[in-house]
Structure formats: structure tokens, C-alpha cells
């Protein structure tokens, strides 16, 4: 199985991986994320928004929406600011975001954290696009190629996982 999420769904996908890691639960074959929210406190997003606001999803709007979800949680909760521990055994990650959107800093930090922990993570930053542009294939010409790249990742992750299963059975 390969799981995916966009925006806050990317946060949930990574949180699931980290919970699986803590509980020694088997991981999916891979995870793809579009414009993932890594830091639910929006510190990175607000920093990026000051450089170039995303007209589709400014940081202040995202923060308000996430505050409804995180109401009552401590701001320093490890489930709000996700951290991949060194040496974590996680499946391959595939991340896409617009190069200038509010969550591009989150996407970069996710890649950097994953690579530092020894997790394979491919990051694609698409210039001039909006937050979760992949959801608009009829309006955004780059959405189709981006979705095909994600589909290629899914096929590859499943093939790799199936190969690992065959090797263990043999």
C-alpha cells in the first residue's frame, strides 16, 4: 500500500509514519505528499509568506484552519511539529510543492530531515504554481505531468516493496 496526502493531509501521512515507527507497526510501501504541512504552528509557512504570499492559500488562512483542528493542543506538541529521528526506518517519500507557495519551506525541511535521517526522499518544486496545484488538472497545465510523476513513484514503490517480499519468501 502507498499512502498520500496534500497540505494538512501530508502532515497526517507523516504523523502516521512516525506513530507506526514508535509502535513498531509495519509501514506502507511509500508515501507521496503534495504541499505537505510539516509544522502545524505555521512558523515556516509565515516566513515563506513574507517573501512571497501565495494568492490561493496565504499562511494566515491556513493557520486559522489548522487552529480549529489543533484546538487544545500544546504548541510544542511533537505531533504538531513533526520530527524524523536519526536512523528512522521509513518508506520512501515523494514530495511535490510549488516553489514559491507558503508550504515550500515545509517541503524543503521535510526533505532535509528525511535525508539526514537516512530516509529516501525525492522533492520536486514546481515554479510559478499555487498550493496543491495538482488538484486542478483542468486549470493548471503542469498538474497532469505532476500527477504522472506521483503515479510513477507509486508504481515504483509498490514494485520495490513486492520485490522485497519476494526476496524474503525465497
The side-by-side strand order for the widest beta sheet comes to: 1-2-3-4
Termini, distance in Å?
21 Å
The overall pLDDT average reads: 89
Please give the count of helices. Answer: 5
Number of domains: 1
Helix proportion range:
40-55%
Low-confidence parts, pLDDT < 50 over ≥5 residues? none
Largest sheet: 4 strands, parallel
Under CATH, the homologous superfamily reads Alpha/Beta hydrolase fold, catalytic domain
Count of distinct strands: 4
CATH architecture classification: 3-Layer(aba) Sandwich
Provide the succession of SSEs: EHEHHEHEH
Structural class designation: alpha/beta
User: Under the CATH scheme, which class?
Assistant: Alpha Beta
Q: Percent of residues in beta strands?
A: 5-15%
User: What Rg, in angstroms, do the CA atoms define?
Assistant: 16 Å
Q: Outline, from the CA principal axes?
A: globular
And the CATH topology? Rossmann fold
Show the helix and strand layout.
Blueprint: E1 2-6, H1 8-23, E2 30-34, H2 43-51, H3 59-70, E3 93-98, H4 104-117, E4 121-126, H5 143-169
Parallel strand pairs: 1-2, 2-3, 3-4
Characterization of this structure:
- It is a single chain.
- This protein is α/β, with parallel strands linked by helices and 170 residues long.
- The chain has a single domain (2-169), classed as 3-Layer(aba) Sandwich (Rossmann fold).
- The chain contains five helices and four strands.
- It has a four-stranded parallel beta sheet, with helices on both faces.
- The model has no long low-confidence stretch (mean pLDDT 89).
Amino acid at each position: 500500500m502507498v499512502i498520500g496526502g496534500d497540505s494538512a493531509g501530508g502532515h497526517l501521512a507523516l504523523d502516521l509514519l512516525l506513530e507506526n515507527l514508535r509502535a513498531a507497526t509495519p509501514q506502507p510501501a511509500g508515501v507521496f505528499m503534495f504541499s505537505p504541512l510539516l509544522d502545524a504552528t505555521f512558523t515556516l509557512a509565515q516566513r515563506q509568506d513574507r517573501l512571497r504570499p501565495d494568492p490561493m492559500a496565504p499562511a494566515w488562512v491556513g493557520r486559522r484552519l489548522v487552529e480549529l483542528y489543533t484546538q487544545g493542543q500544546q504548541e510544542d506538541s511533537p505531533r504538531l511539529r513533526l520530527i524524523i529521528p536519526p536512523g528512522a526506518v521509513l518508506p520512501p517519500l515523494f514530495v511535490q510543492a510549488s516553489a514559491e507557495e507558503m508550504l515550500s519551506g515545509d517541503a524543503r525541511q521535510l526533505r532535509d530531515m528525511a535525508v539526514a535521517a537516512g530516509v529516501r526522499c525525492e522533492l520536486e518544486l514546481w515554479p510559478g504554481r499555487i498550493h496543491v496545484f495538482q488538484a486542478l488538472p483542468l486549470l493548471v497545465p503542469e498538474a497532469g505531468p505532476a500527477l504522472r510523476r506521483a503515479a510513477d513513484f507509486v508504481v515504483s514503490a509498490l514494485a520495490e516493496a513486492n520485490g522485497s517480499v519476494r526476496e524474503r519468501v525465497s
